[in-house]
Design a protein that fits this description.
The protein has helices at about 1-15, 20-30, 35-45, 50-80, 105-115, 130-135, 170-175, 220-235, 285-290, 310-315, 330; strands at about 120, 130, 155, 160-165, 180-190, 205-215, 240-245, 250-260, 275-285, 300-305. It contains 11 helices and 10 strands. The protein is of the alpha+beta class. The radius of gyration is 39 Å and the shape is elongated. Bound molecules: 3,4-dihydroxyphenylalanine. 3,4-dihydroxyphenylalanine binds next to strand 9 and strand 10.
Length: about 350
């Protein structure tokens, strides 16, 4: 019997199979109830005790060997099945969809990059603000309509705690803590209680700019904004400043650029005027400087504020504001090329 076991071990060690059926046939031959090994087990039971001692271990080894060998043959076949014989392993992988930057982020970064070339750095402030930083320090009269419930989201009915309605609040925070020269850009999200439509949203994004130093003039403001407009919309872009009113600037202006669609000739986009409005600006009102602890007899400053959605709309002709917050990939994927 020892001899028989030895021969079987050699036989099993060299087993091969090319299909699942062949493996199954081997399993039946060696490992099934009526298989070779079970037969040997039955013979083993008939042996006298002293022979049992001799044969037991080799017989167990044989069984383990058969089980392992047949399992290994089975596994090798399934692994081979998974491998498509037509697979071209030298082919490059399918392109990975990497996602795209949001158009508002792209435009925000571009605005920051343009003004950083003029020495502006980025400043931040909280979105949950108090009345002082959003309104009072900026010279809004106590009964100014912008404080109204209809515009401003108040928190917990507390008239002092609110969601900022503009990033001008960051001007105040910076001036309270820094000494001139100050040259900052404050990008961020702002909130207004408006019904959501294609042209209005309850939150949107602004970039505020502030420059305070000795002898800052309106000419500096105009030249900085011309530089911005031409960097953003192309070297042929013209600017136009119209007198306007903001509580925190005096004088105040609104800036138009020559329509970047028709080049100023007039089209439906610019309502046939040749101009489109892009931002508000002005010289910082001396009362604002003083409220923030900056001596208005020594320093002057200019400020400007623009909507990032507005600039993005002009640059990429996005007509509906809601697209910016819907996360529709069909919209977002169109800005892939804008990364270059
Ligand atoms: N804060 C203004 C708004 O939300 C925009 C603005 C206008 C900012 C004129 C300024 C400015 O700094 O000088 O409509």
């Amino acid at each position: 019997m020892i001899e028989q076991i030895k021969n079987l071990k050699a036989e099993i060690a060299s087993l091969q199979a090319t299909s699942a059926d062949e493996v199954e046939a081997l399993r039946i031959k060696y490992l099934s109830k009526k298989g070779v090994i079970n037969q040997l087990m039955a013979d083993f039971r008939q042996l006298p005790p002293e022979q049992k001692r001799e044969v037991g271990a080799p017989l167990n080894e044989l069984k383990t060997l058969a089980t392992d060998t047949i399992n290994a043959l089975k596994e090798a076949l399934t692994a081979a099945d998974d491998m498509d014989p037509n697979l071209d392993l030298s082919r490059s992988v399918a392109p990975l969809p990497l996602g795209t930057r949001h158009p508002l982020s792209l435009v925000r970064e571009e605005i920051i990059s343009i003004f950083s070339r003029l020495g502006f750095t980025v400043a931040e402030g909280p979105e949950i603000e108090d009345d002082w930083h959003v309104f009072s320090a900026l010279n809004f009269a106590p009964d100014h309509p912008a404080r109204d419930m209809q515009d401003t989201f108040f928190i917990m009915r507390d008239p002092d705690i609110l969601l900022r309605t503009h990033t001008s609040s960051v001007q105040v925070r910076v001036m309270e803590h820094a000494k001139p020269p100050i040259r900052i850009l404050a990008p961020g999200r702002v909130y207004r209680n408006e019904a959501i439509s294609a042209r209005a949203h309850c939150f949107f994004h602004q970039v505020e700019g502030l420059y305070v130093d000795r002898n800052v003039s309106f000419a500096d403001l105009k030249q900085s904004l011309l530089y911005f407009a031409q960097e953003m919309f192309g070297p042929d872009t013209k600017i136009r400043l119209r007198p306007s009113y903001f509580p925190f600037t005096e004088p105040s202006a609104e800036m138009d650029i020559s329509c970047n669609l028709c080049g100023g000739k007039g089209c439906s986009f610019c309502k046939h005027t040749g101009w489109v409005e892009i931002l508000g600006c002005g010289m910082v009102d001396p009362a604002v400087l003083d409220a923030c602890g900056i001596d208005s007899r020594q320093y002057t400053g200019f400020a400007f504020g623009m909507g990032i959605e507005r600039i993005t709309n002009l640059k990429y002709q996005v007509k509906d504001l809601r697209l910016f917050s819907e996360n529709d990939r069909r919209f977002l994927e169109q800005f892939q090329a804008a990364h270059l």
